[in-house]
Amino acid sequence: MNKESKDKQKRIEEEEIESQEWLDSLDYVIDAGGVERAAKLIKKLQIHAQKRGARLHFTANTPYINTIPVEKQPPYPGDPQIEWTIRSLIRWNAMAMVVRANRLEEGIGGHISTFASAAALYEVAFNHFLRGRNESHEGDIVYFQGHASPGIYARAYLEGRLTIENLQNFRRDLQQEGGLTSYPHPWLMPNFWQFPTVSMGLSPIMAIYQARFNRYLEDRGLKKPSDAKVWTFLGDGETDEPETLGAITLASRENLDNLIFVVNCNLQRLDGPVRGNGKIIQELESIFRGAGWNVIKVIWGSNWDPLLSKDKDGILVKRMTEALDGDYQKYSVASGEYIRNHFFGTDPRLQDMVKNLSDTELQKLRRGGHDPEKIYPAFKAAVENIGSPTVILAKTIKGYGLGEAGEGRNITHQQKKLNEEELKLFKKRFDIPISDEDISRAPFYKPPDDSKEIKYLKERRHELGGYLPKREVICDPIKAPPEKLFEEFYKGSGKREVATTMAIVRMLAKLLKDKNIGKLIVPIVPDEARTFGMEALFRQVGIYSHVGQLYEPVDAETLLYYKEAIDGQILEEGITEAGSMSSFIAAGTAYATHGINTIPFFIYYSMFGFQRIGDLIWAAGDMRCKGFMVGGTAGRTTLAGEGLQHQDGHSHLLAYPIPNLKAYDPAFAYEIAVIIQDGIRRMYVEQEDLFYYITVMNETYKQPPMPQGVKEGILKGMYKFRDSQNKEAKLHAQLFGSGTILNEVLKAQEVLGDKYGVAADVWSVTSYKELYRDGLEKERWNMLHPSEIRRVPYITECVKNSPGVFVAASDYVMALPDSISQWLPRPLVSLGTDGFGRSASRKALRDFFEVDWRYIILAVLASLTWEKKIEPEIVEKAILDLDINPSKANPMIS
Questions:
Q1: Torsion of CA 310, 315, 316, 322, to 10 degrees
Q2: Fewer beta carbons within 10 Å, N or C terminal of the chain?
Q3: Secondary structure of 379-448 as H, E, C letters
Q4: φ and ψ at 141, to 5 degrees?
Q5: Which of 297, 329, 325 is nearest to 400 (CA)?
Q6: Residue 552 Cα to chain centre, angstroms
Q7: Closest residue by Cα to residue 382 from 286, 256, 294, 254
Q8: How far apart are CA 186 and CA 149, in angstroms?
Q9: What's the pLDDT tens digit per position in 26-66?
Q10: 893 three-class SS
């Protein structure tokens, strides 16, 4: 060895000695002063080093080992052997459920591998942590990972809550004796599932806002303070969904120590590795720690502890850290010899560490997420943590227990079937008491009710307050607000011009003052309160903040200053429609979750509702959510100036598919009053599982008084607002108008009568969806009852004696009026706002989209021409008189 090499080796040895001296010193500090003193010292050293010019690379990662060291593990409180047996039986029945379903119905689907990887996580939680709702405790709220539903059903079967017939009908919802839904769906299993969770990414964001809403209820005195937790089970692949991680800073900012995420890190998504060339656990740790969460890693099982205790120089931890997730996936299916050569074979010291272990023992080195003795301390630490939310990152193997049939393999997510040999191996591995003769049938197995396993399982749930999941509605109807609260809106605005947005905010202010339901109103706004004229509510009821207002607001001297308060009622969510919708869901399902009839009003830019968060709105329907979604600044031509990205002309069409959503586009304040009053009655007095979408506009105009006898029509979708005064006319038309465009229709009615001799009646169409649904229901009944008297759709009944042509105009796409045209006696001409929006004035926009009073007149005259009632020359002259350009660009495609 030359001199240079000798000097380099000497420096390395000196650095190692120096490093060891520092480590020994740190050990002394920990032993003498504790870990907190050590942490303070390290912080001072870091500051000193930076002052001396040392630039330390920031990392939010801790070593790739368990967060809780073995010496800090509490003793396991349960009976490990009985719990292993119960867990094994649940594994078997979950697997059998999917296998049998796919034998009965080819391609019916189902998932074995997700629960197989998470079984230990769930069972430790069920046996020791998840609390049910009973008289003495409100219970924990649990979002179960959707793909793990077979395991949840299999446990409920052992508990006696589900029958063998239920299990046989997994994924066969339409069986007469009842089936089990593919995933958690409260709409289909309203006494079992609380939350739909299989649209990946939704359960994490819903859980965050649910945990915050629980605090909101406590701070406002609507429920007693509680130590109840919100648990969310999800997969590591699910964290790629923006909703999963998009709101995690809210949880830390609000100090939501009632929130626990359990991330099943089996390293695989549907097609392959989550991070084959990286480490998903380390990536998630840095994200969550950076956001202020308490992070607990559960990576290695107990049989790694002896090896880690030998790792004095950190070479094993170094190897654990440098191996990639793609490597670990390979190790999960590899032989012990392969693991010895490729994991431990990279360093002689590692090889020496495992020289006394057989290849079989190496192959059985477990991951932490399969070891209850590692899971329990993590869950216990999470429950006891104060001041921040907790995420548990548990490393598992996807398809654990499936062996060659799918354990750790890329195809495991799609695994639906096992052959007889694979079933025998599964049975042997988990000691399932089924004979080899019966194994081919994949029978379900349940021990006798007096067996020690069933007794233990039921005792644990009794100790923890009851069974989960369970959805139970214990909520009395509210007392409806009095009629007089709405009377001012029935009277109209007189000479004052008022936008419907202003009207609904005024209505909300009055509801907030109501002695019976005022405290139950939950206004929710995604940072647009001033846009909607809601700033007066800041002072009236305050903006909710768990810590109150720790600063003096810049506008403190003004009447309508920005007032935050611990008991504030407004949920000012910031610029997040997804977060706001999650709060809406939490408030709209509080009747079932907490037995509290909170009434959410979510007011937002209508363009950024269905188009942006349609998946959450669909989930709200599944959850039997209640409340009012209010699409503000609605209408493609009514929102002037904002342009293409903001102008909504299609949200009402997007509302059509949601079965339990009522959608209204009212023109006048009294229509809104009737809809809200009836909505509160139906949802909270009659306790119907509905929610509402109402669009309101920022265009001001005089609000007329309510005509007599129109309430029923408002709710059913249409009513005649104004008859033509021209009783002698020979030409007739029926004009349908909605929202602010109804004003254009009224102007067209006047000009048609005065200038063209057309007697036009005007109808206010408040809901095309209600008319459409009514028409479909009547047609279906008629088809199924051919010998009965035919039922007539409401719209058909309305216009049966109405002469003339039909023209409809709205600020939305033409598909809306077209959807009900089949139930009219004559053809309908629809005018709407198909196409991209523009930045322009309302007048210019209505000309561009061809929905102003001139185009309504033109549509009427053209229809009369087609009906041979007038000559085409009259229409051509009208085009000139009305200053309409026949060669203008088509708004649908320009």
A1: 170
A2: N
A3: HHHHHHCCCCCEEEEEECCCCCCCHHHCCCCCCHHHCCCCCHHHHHHHHHHHCCCCCCCCHHHCCCCCCC
A4: -105, 130
A5: 329
A6: 35
A7: 294
A8: 13
A9: 888 888 888 888 888 888 887 787 777 777 777 789 999 99
A10: coil
Structure tokens at 885: 């350009």
- The rounded distance, in Å, linking the Cα atoms of 857 and 364 is 81
Burial 608-640 (b: 16+ CB within 10 A, else e): bbbeebbbbbbbbbbbbbbbbbbbbbbbbbbbb
Q: CA dihedral in degrees (161, 162, 163, 164; nearest 10)? A: -130
The three-state (H, E, C) secondary structure of 81-144, written as one string = HHHHHHHHHHHHHHHHHHHHHHHHCCCCCCCCHHHHHHHHHHHHHHHHCCCCCCCCCCCCEEEC
* The one-letter amino acid at 169: N
Cβ atoms within 10 Å of 15's Cβ, excluding its own? 10
Q: Tell whether omega for the bond before 469 is within 30 degrees of 0, i.e. cis.
A: yes
- For the chain, the first-to-last Cα distance in angstroms comes to 79
For the chain, what's the residue count? 894
Q: How far is CA 513 from CA 494, 535, 767, 828, in A?
A: 24, 16, 29, 45
Return the structure tokens found at 701.
């105009």
What single-letter amino acid sits at 695? T
Instruction: Give the three-class secondary structure for 805.
Output: strand
Q: What confidence tens digit (pLDDT) does each residue in 818-833 have?
A: 999 999 999 999 999 9
CB 399 within 8 A of CB 151: no
pTM above 0.90, yes or no: yes
Q: Which two tokens stand for residue 507?
A: 């209505």
CA 218 vs CA 257, 512, 516, 566, 592: distances in Å: 14, 18, 19, 10, 17
Query: What is the rounded CA–CA span in Å between residue 892 and residue 469?
Result: 49
The residue among 429, 376, 461 whose CA lies nearest residue 77 is 376
CA distance 693 to 812: 15
810 touches 851 (CB < 8 A):
yes
Residues facing residue 231 across a β-bridge: 142, 260
What string of H, E and C letters represents the secondary structure of 287-323? HHHHCCCEEEEECECHHHHHHHHHCCCCHHHHHHHHC
Of residues 152, 98, 110, the one with CA closest to residue 418: 98
Exposure b/e, 270-289, CB count within 10 A at least 16 = b:
eeebbbbeebbbbbbbbbbb
Rounded CA-CA distance 717/819 in Å is 13
Report DSSP letters for 457-477, one per residue: HHHHHHHTTS-SS------PP
In the sheet where 599-605 sits, what is the strand order? 571-572, 521-525, 599-605, 628-632, 691-695, 661-664
Tokens, residue 870: 């007038």
Q: Per residue in 458-507, pLDDT tens?
A: 999 999 999 999 999 999 999 999 999 999 999 999 999 999 999 999 99
Q: Is 44 exposed, middle or buried (0-12, 13-18, 19+ CB in 10 A)?
A: exposed
* Site of tokens 């605090």: 215
CB contact at 8 A, 389 and 256: yes
Contact 716, 828 (CB under 8 A): no
- Asked if residue 138 lies in contact with residue 228, where contact means CB atoms within 8 angstroms, the answer is yes
Residue-wise pLDDT for 768-817, tens only, equals 999 999 999 999 999 999 999 999 999 999 999 999 999 999 999 999 99
Q: Tell me, what amino acid is at 260?
A: I
Name the residue among 244, 258, 265, 257 with its Cα closest to residue 121: 265
* 219 CA to centre of own chain: 24
